Amino acid sequence: MTIVRQPSGPGLLVRFVWWLFIGWWASGIVVGIAWIALLTIIGIPFGIWLINRLPTMLTLRPRTRTWDLGEDTDGRTVYAERGRAQVSWPIRGLWFILVGWWASGLWMAAAWLIQLTVIGLPIALLMFNRTPFVASLYRY
């Protein structure tokens, strides 16, 4: 099987200019909306959707997607997006109820503050990339 990765998005200069003029403040708004959405049962899917897009909002960096290419029984080429093994839903749900909702708020706030230092931007990106895990033990 062959693994294909999605392109990494715009160049570094474009991403920095985006962050400088839009990303730093827009990501703060998205962090606030996402966390408020997590507090409501009906808003949880929207909050998680926003959390998954925080790195893109911050620096236009898309998530890397991995695809497996192979052949089916008829010899045709097929592909499927590959995901990582996940913790079971009951454990993830319990984690979210007991820890994830408040820990993700603190985590995102810390990441947003760290990115304001410019030097801390790489650390903030790592933190935003791991926010789904902090909130619900979801692995990308």
In short:
This protein is mainly alpha-helical and 140 residues long. The protein has helices at residues 12-38, 44-52, 54-59, 89-115, 121-129, 131-136; strands at residues 2-5, 66-71, 77-81.
The strands making up the biggest β-sheet line up spatially as 1-2-3
Number of domains: 1
CA radius of gyration? 17 Å
Strand content: 5-15%
Helix % is 55-70%
What is the tally of helical segments? 6
Mean pLDDT: 85
Which consecutive residue ranges, at least 5 long each, have pLDDT under 50?
none
Spatial gap, N to C terminus = 20 Å
Structural class: mainly alpha
Give the H and E element order. EHHHEEHHH
* Largest sheet, strands/sense/barrel: 3 strands, antiparallel
| Shape field | flat
Overall strand count: 3
Topology overview:
Elements (H helix, E strand, L loop, with lengths): L1 E4 L6 H27 L5 H9 L1 H6 L6 E6 L5 E5 L7 H27 L5 H9 L1 H6 L4
Antiparallel strand pairs: 1-2, 2-3
Helix pairs in contact: 1-2, 1-4, 4-5
Overview of this protein structure:
The protein has 140 residues and is mainly alpha-helical. It has one domain. Helices cover 60% and strands 11% of the residues. The chain has helices at residues 12-38, 44-52, 54-59, 89-115, 121-129, 131-136; strands spanning 2-5, 66-71, 77-81. It has a three-stranded antiparallel beta sheet, with no helix packed on it. The longest helix is centred in the N-terminal third of the chain and has 27 residues, at 12-38. The mean pLDDT is 85.
